[in-house]
């Protein structure tokens, strides 16, 4: 799994449609304070299903929608699309054979979120299920932020186990068992 491109429109400071390509093994995003670097990571976590506004550095979910500047009026919809290369077939189920996976989320001012997988409308759960056990998810280890390493080092054995189970790819089976048992 490799993130190939991020497309943003109306998300936080990215009011105009913006494409960020990741064509090389290593890509650095640099710029002055407040230019929107962290907003790019917020966008990735948001598409993957982050449902806590606080984790996206806002008070409510609609805070991710461009809320205007001195020169521009606020807009009503935010959308982000992530395009992944799925060459190693890390995903399970019907998407295993797709070479490219597009995951998209939109939100409007009524706080309604819409999710799409390869252009088809889907549920948030379809996206979280798809990436479970791949290390990619709103709170997964693919995104290592300031403080993540120390949290890992200081975590209790039970918390550490959650990371290890995700890395080993078994968390999706545990989740399925939990769902079955709760039925
Ligand atoms: P630093 O180097 O300080 O970490 P950064 O490049 O990570 O900065 P971000 O935190 O990504 O910067 O971006 C902050 C900017 O995004 C601020 O200027 C803020 O006004 C703008 N911003 C955040 N949410 C919105 C929104 N909903 N509408 C418009 N602008 C927004
Ligand atoms: Mg930042």
UniProtKB/TrEMBL annotation:
Q: Please explain the role this protein plays, according to its UniProt record.
A: Required for chromosome condensation and partitioning.
Share the domain note from the entry: Contains large globular domains required for ATP hydrolysis at each terminus and a third globular domain forming a flexible hinge near the middle of the molecule. These domains are separated by coiled-coil structures.
> Where is this chain's protein located in or outside the cell?
Cytoplasm
**Classification lineage:** Bacteria, Pseudomonadati, Pseudomonadota, Gammaproteobacteria, Alteromonadales
Similarity remark: Belongs to the SMC family.
Q: What is this protein called?
A: Chromosome partition protein Smc
Its assembly, as annotated, is: Homodimer.
What range of the parent protein does this fragment cover?
1 to 183 of 1140
Query: Which species does the entry assign this protein to?
Result: Shewanella aestuarii
Residues annotated to bind ATP? 32-39
């Amino acid at each position: 799994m490799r993130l190939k491109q991020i497309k943003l429109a109306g998300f936080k400071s990215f009011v105009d449609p913006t494409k960020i390509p990741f064509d090389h093994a290593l890509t650095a995003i640099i710029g002055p304070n407040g230019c929107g670097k962290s907003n790019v990571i917020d966008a990735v976590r948001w598409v993957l299903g982050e449902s806590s506004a606080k984790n996206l550095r806002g008070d409510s979910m609609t805070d991710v929608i461009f809320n205007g500047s001195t020169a521009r009026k606020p807009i009503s919809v935010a959308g982000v699309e992530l395009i992944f290369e799925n060459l190693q077939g890390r995903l399970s189920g019907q998407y295993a054979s797709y070479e490219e996976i597009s995951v998209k989320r939109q939100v409007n001012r009524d706080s309604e979120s819409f999710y799409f997988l390869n252009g088809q409308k889907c549920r948030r759960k379809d996206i979280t299920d798809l990436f479970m056990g791949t290390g990619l998810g709103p709170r997964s280890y693919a995104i290592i932020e300031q403080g993540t390493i120390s949290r890992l080092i200081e975590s209790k054995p039970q918390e550490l186990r959650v990371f290890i189970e995700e890395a080993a790819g078994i968390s999706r089976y545990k989740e399925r068992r939990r769902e079955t048992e709760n039925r």
